[in-house]
Amino acid sequence: MDILATLAKAQTTPPGEGRRSALLMEHGTMTLRFYAPRGTDPQTPHDQDELYVVARGTGTFFMDGRRVAFSPGDVLFAPAGAEHRFEDFSDDFETWVVFYGAEGGEGSAAT
Q1: Domain ranges for the chain
Q2: pLDDT tens digits along 1-38
Q3: Mind spelling out the 3-state secondary structure of the chain?
Q4: How high is the mean pLDDT of the chain?
Q5: Could you say which architecture CATH assigns to the domain 7-100?
Q6: Neighbour tally for 56: CB within 10 Å
Q7: Has this prediction a pTM greater than 0.85?
């Protein structure tokens, strides 16, 4: 199992067959992927909760009717099954994607 994922490795790892993002790490229910859409973001809702950690670029994140601006270093959350996508993003946009938890998401656990 890899214990380090570098931006340089992520930028040169091609997406898997039929995928839009490159797989860099897996452990249990967690997967770490790298996503760098160009032009538009055609993604559809996912089966797991996910975090996006913006590596480069700026834009707007749409999630279930809400929009927020993002920039490098920001972390965005999309629960399992939620409609979400990146909009009006810069040409250099790249993000880490962490999928985790059971299919259907973890729900609203008390904090």
Answers
A1: 7-100
A2: 689 999 999 999 999 899 999 999 999 999 999 999 99
A3: CCCCCCHHHHHHCCCCCCCCEEEEEEECCEEEEEECCCCCCCCCCCCCEEEEEEEECCEEEEECCEEEEECCCCEEEECCCCCEEEECCCCCCEEEEEEECCCCCCCCCCC
A4: 95
A5: Sandwich (2.60)
A6: 16
A7: yes
